[in-house]
Amino acid sequence: MRVLATPLADSPSGFLTLSVGVAACVPQAESQAEALLAAADQVLYPAKAQGRDLVLLGVLPHSSP
To answer: Cα–chain-centroid distance for residue 17?
Structure first.
């Protein structure tokens, strides 16, 4: 996104930025897709708060069978 330098007046930087929340887990039988999405969502907002144009990783704890 930074290379494109797309102007965006409403952005603090003046340009279009991309913030991404990524989450990963080792799938288990009891794994819930909603929990994975929630973990990604939880790191998305800090990525935006830290100046945007950032990728943060959230990891679900591994549960033992």
So the answer is: 13
Q: Classify 7 as helix, strand or coil.
A: strand
Q: Is 39 helix (H, G, I), strand (E, B) or coil?
A: helix
Q: Mean pLDDT throughout 17-25?
A: 85
| pTM confidence score | 0.65
Where is 24: in which H helix or E strand? strand 20-24
CA distance 43 to 47: 6
Residue pair 59/24 in contact (Cβ under 8 Å)? The answer is yes
Rounded Cα gap, residues 34 and 1, in angstroms? 28
Domain boundaries, the chain: 20-59
